[in-house]
Amino acid sequence: VQVQERGFAYVLLSGGIDSMACLAFYAALNFDTGALYCDYGQAAATRERKAAVLVAGHFDTSLDEIQMSGVPTTEGEIIGRNGLLVSAALIKFPRSTGLICLGIHAGTGYADCGGGFLDSIKGVVEECSAGLISVSAPFLTWAKSDIWEFARSRSLPIHETYSCERGLDQPCGGCKTCGDLEALYAR
Fold first, then answer.
1. Each residue of 139-154: pLDDT tens digit?
2. Percent of the chain topping pLDDT 90
3. Nearest CA to 64 among 55, 48, 53?
4. Whole-angstrom Cα distance, residue 62 to residue 59?
5. What span, in angstroms and rounded, lies between the C-alpha atoms of 103 and 113?
6. Which of 91, 151, 157, 166 has the fewest CB atoms within 10 Å around its CB?
7. CA–CA dist 154, 116 (Å, integer)
8. What is the rounded (10 degree) CA torsion for 75, 89, 122, 43?
9. What is the pLDDT of residues 93-151, one digit of tens each?
């Protein structure tokens, strides 16, 4: 992954493995980091927030929060979710310049986790910020297993993360995210 310049990285921190690894990625590159947790009414909001607080504390980074209401939520893909989250990060962005960073990766099948989405949302953010803020997704071409290995090789606190779409004890045995998690732990 090529990063053009060091500066400020504002990581969308859901409390899951991918966003934690994204925060670790930029911290390792000596970026000044901050994080944003978004509660949009998802079933897992309470547990995700707790995990985001723990992860931000591990990296000694500030954690901003934003709460949204009226967002229809379902298990699995929520159409436009990452666009909403990037927009929230742009509105809440605490500096005049920097990056909004996502832990999206290959293999999800979700439209807002691919290169087309990244290019489009990057253009919107750069247009809205006069080119001062951009969007970065360092794991765009990585598989979930690559992120897992990245996290394990750096002894990241995987046990402090939370990813169940249902908001249940993980792995719940029913959602796609917990299925992915079970497969990773079985490696």
1. 999 999 999 999 999 9
2. 86
3. 53
4. 9
5. 9
6. 91
7. 30
8. 0
9. 999 999 999 999 999 989 999 999 999 999 999 999 999 999 999 999 999 999 999 99
* φ and ψ at residue 121, rounded to 5 degrees: -70, -35
CA dist., res. 97 & res. 75, Å (int): 34
Residue 116 to residues 68, 90, 112, 122, 172: CA-CA distances in angstroms? 26, 19, 8, 10, 32
Task: Give CA–CA dist 32/98, Å, rounded.
Answer: 10
Residue showing tokens 């690894």:
21
Q: Which tokens go with 140?
A: 């765009």
pLDDT for 100: 98
